[in-house]
Each structure stands twice: as structure tokens, then as C-alpha cells.
Amino acid sequence: MDDRRARLLIHGASGRMGRSLLSLVAEHPGLHLVAAVANAPRADLGALAVLRPAQIAQAPAFDVVIDFSAPSALPALAAACAERGAALVSGTTGLDAAALAALDQAAQRVPVLWAANFSLGVALLAALARRAAAAVPDWDCEIIETHHRRKQDAPSGTALRLGEAIAAGRGQSLAALARHGREGAQAPRIAGEIGFHAVRGGDVVGDHQILLAGEAEVIELTHRAASREVFARGALKSAAWLSGRGPGRYRVEDVLGLAD
């Protein structure tokens, strides 16, 4: 065993992302899986320590956690990471005020990276969008996202992340610019607003398109995820990178060296 590998605990091993992480972690040279937290028994994991959420205090020593679970589980997990001195990578979405506060509190003691989307391509897209929006500040911007029929939130967290990048590129806040959908006899487009449009159908993993429209020309920036594996691979890369870093909040852009 390579002692330099970070000891990994997967939190939310019963879900789709958890199963994808379990199938791919052995391929990552910088991580060693030591435990998994799941809501249901996992006979396929052999001798690996499989715990219920309430048993995380009983987990063997770990350096980093990858979490894809539920917002209600995040405060206790963040506190456990802070107590154990372990880095936390979380892709749990739909966070409420308590979960967000828990991440901030844990980040005072350990490194924390939260993202709505761990695709490395999406991180690059956000960086490109920010630069493009800054270069053409008077062009109209629309974001169109497409996901499978079962997705519960709209617009997607990734779409909002892209909107935040565009707004930041123009030195503004997304809250002041966002417009969600268009219907009926509405007034003409307001200058500077960022439109969001959500499409749901089939088993689409995730498509995101940014449209920047000027006079007589249009730029389209698009990312398509063909498999959920892209998110798992990005989370694993992020976990290996985050382990051993100082306390604070981090982003996937930091992992790729794209941070401002």
C-alpha cells in the first residue's frame, strides 16, 4: 500500500453518485478507500467498513470525505470532519441555511470544497464564461440547461454557478440580474439581465449552454455530460487535491488552477 495515498471515506454510498465513486476509486492513485457511509447494507463491499450515518464516529481514521447525501445530513458530517481534522468534499445540493453555515464553520478548521457540479469541463466553462462576459459586457446572455425528467430543482445548481461567473465577470451580483423563464406578453429584454431556462426530459445527464448575443453575431458555449462518471472522477480528483491543504473554502476551479 502507498502510504502517501489519502484515506477516503465516501458519505452517501447508497446513491447514484456514491455507487459511481465506489466503482472508480480504485483507479485513482492518490486515494485509498477505508470506509463508506450508506443508508442500506452493501454486501458487495466485502471487508470495507460500511457504516450507517449515525455511526460515522466509529469510522476508521480518514483524511478526506466525499459527500453526496442529503442537506439534513451535512451539519453532522461537517462537524465530524472538523473534529477529525479531515478535508470535506461535498456535492450535496439543495442546501439550506443550516447546511451552508455548517460548511462555513467547518472551513475554519479544515479544508472544505463544495460544488454543485464536479465536472472539470464545467469548471473550465465557468472560467471561460466569466472572461467572455467581461469582454462583451453589453451582449445579451441566456443560459439553457437540460436534465433528466427526475431532476427536482430548476434551474440547476450548475446553471446558477455559470450565471454567477457571468455576473462576476461584469462586476455585478447575480441576484440583481437573474430572470427565470419568459412567458406571455412581457416587456422587452432588460439590458444586462441573465436569463435562465430549464428543460426536463428523458435520461439526459446534464447539458448546459451559454448564449451570448450581440449585434449580428452570437457566441455559444456548451458543455454536455455523457455519463455520471465525469462527476465522480472530478470529485475524486478534488478529494486527492484537497487532502492536506489548509483550512478554508475551495472550488473546483482551484483544483484546476483556474481561480482568480
UniProtKB/TrEMBL annotation:
GO molecular function, a single term: oxidoreductase activity, acting on CH or CH2 groups, NAD or NADP as acceptor
Keyword annotations: Amino-acid biosynthesis, Cytoplasm, Diaminopimelate biosynthesis, Lysine biosynthesis, NAD, NADP, Oxidoreductase
Subcellular location: Cytoplasm
Protein name per the record: 4-hydroxy-tetrahydrodipicolinate reductase
Domain spans labelled Dihydrodipicolinate reductase N-terminal: 7-118
Gene Ontology cellular-component annotations: cytosol
Residues bound to NADP(+): 42
Residues annotated to bind (S)-2,3,4,5-tetrahydrodipicolinate: 148, 157-158
Role summary: Catalyzes the conversion of 4-hydroxy-tetrahydrodipicolinate (HTPA) to tetrahydrodipicolinate.
Entries under InterPro entries matching the protein: DapB_C, DapB_N, DapB_N_CS, DHDPR_bac, NAD(P)-bd_dom_sf
Catalytic machinery residues: 147 (proton donor/acceptor), 151 (proton donor)
EC nos: 1.17.1.8
Chemical reaction(s) catalysed: (S)-2,3,4,5-tetrahydrodipicolinate + NADP(+) + H2O = (2S,4S)-4-hydroxy-2,3,4,5-tetrahydrodipicolinate + NADPH + H(+); (S)-2,3,4,5-tetrahydrodipicolinate + NAD(+) + H2O = (2S,4S)-4-hydroxy-2,3,4,5-tetrahydrodipicolinate + NADH + H(+)
Positions contributing to NAD(+) binding: 12-17, 91-93, 115-118
Record-linked Pfam families: DapB_C, DapB_N
Main EC class the enzyme belongs to: oxidoreductase
